[in-house]
Amino acid sequence: MSTTVLERLERLPHRNLTVLALRGISTLVPGGWTNITSAEEMIHGVLGSTDPELTRQVRDRADELSRARHEGYARALSLYDAVNRSQKAAGGLRVLANVAGALPLVKRLTLFTPANETLQAADLSLKVAAEMLAFTQVNGLPGDSFADFGASLNEYTSEARVRMAALVCFDGFLPLGDQALQRLDGLLGRVASHELRQLPAYVGMAPLIPGRGDQAHLSFLRRSVDQWVGWADGFASQLGLTGQRTVRALETTIGPWHGGFEQLAIFLDAFTDTYAHTGVQAVARRLVERAAAEI
Amino acid sequence: MSRRLSWGLGLLLIAGLVLGAFFVLPFRSWLPGGTVADVPNRLVVNGTALNRLFPAPEAGEKLVFTQEKRGFSQARLKQGDAVRALLSISDVTTSPASRAKFSSSGSALAGWPLVEQGDQSSALLVADRFQVKVIGQGAGLSLDERHELLGAFNLQALAALNPASTSKALPQAQAPSLAAQSPAVRPSLAAPSPAAQPSLAAPSPAARPNANRLAALQAARAAAHRETAVLTPAA
Description:
Order of helices and strands of chain A: HHHHHHHHHHHHHHH
Low-confidence stretches of chain B: 164-209, 224-235
Largest sheet of chain B: 7 strands, antiparallel
Number of domains of chain A: 1
Number of domains of chain B: 1
Mean pLDDT of chain B: 72
Number of helices of chain B: 8
Low-confidence stretches of chain A: none
Strand content of chain B: 15-25%
Strand order of the largest sheet of chain B: 1-2-3-7-6-5-4
Number of strands of chain A: 0
Shape of chain A: globular
Structural class of chain B: alpha+beta
Distance between the termini of chain A: 22 Å
Distance between the termini of chain B: 60 Å
Shape of chain B: elongated
Oligomer: heterodimer
Order of helices and strands of chain B: HHEEEHEEEEHHHHH
Radius of gyration of chain B: 23 Å
Number of helices of chain A: 15
Largest interface: A-B, 47 and 52 residues
């Protein structure tokens, strides 16, 4: 890999639509979110020291670790990228379909675009599965028992609260309605394997998902989503997340929105990359924590 | 060559390149191999062996394991929701520089050399191989609190942790890398146990012909690559 994780971190935007959307959703999450795009700032935060020599050592070690393929930090980023590309492609198609729907000659194009709820549900489940695969790539299987692993997963999700809130709201509540989490399993049950193959992210991720064949992959997706839904449900009700509140929170940073929830979801899909943005920050933090411990 | 055929070939080439760029490049990082500092995984202690050596949390505190990789294990010491410290054990086989910093260490803890890095981190080198480190987080920890935490690790068991597979399977491959890196750093005080010294006393590599060593190293790399193909960490 040519670019290291910390270089990716430094290339993240300081202020664009993605950052504004995340800042908006973070008003719903206690503790908030700071858009860290400086490797030095992150290293200083972890080390509790601003010594330039130590900072340089941590940076060198982090670069060495992220270049080693076996360590999985770069692999996690490639997962996030794959999901992000798929989201943008699907979002772009739907924006096009919305515009084309108004033009008489090309109206028929809308028939060919995947805009239905089952696909949206499959997309969300792919993101959740990517999250789990990325977790094991970055952190290994921490601890000696399943309880240890569960605690570690909990720690990770609570650290990435804004990231999870964005996932629940932008990919759950906005396109699928407030009952999204309860309906998710039923919707996934209706996904046919040829529909799954329409998702570009699935094509990229398929070799990494355990099991052989689309049906096995689907059942893996349903199982991983099943575990996640239990957690996400508690999270959403604890913070009182709903589609309505999401829109209001986004309006504080992006500006007034007059369309429907679904259009907002399509708009966010096509023009923001919240998933990859927060993903790079989460991986970079774990990488820096390791590098600081190893120098 | 007919005009149509050359056009067809050209288009095919372009399509292949575009498809390749889209699908192959981002997944290059999924190919097996590529270890830290090119040290074969076989020579590095698995993180699973390190987990049980962490200190037991006191009342009101919680230990949450966050990372476990080859040669590395890390946990957070939490009090309620606040993270107090990052505790970690790492195998310095892959980072000679972090071993070297202990050679100028003046102080010791439980017989092992001790180094302070910045205001919030203390590191201990056990058995010339394992670095144990405590980094204060949030409000921070005092020097004494950090040293107390370092002492709470199971240092005896850590020193006795002899990477069996290392010395048995690949003595030739191990010798050059370790012999090159090890300065004469030994605990100045009494070592806790005779088994503490890891297998550094391997036969001198100079006596062996170069080609032999190279072959052993290559075999070790090949073994490590085969191992990475299986994602589950071997015990």
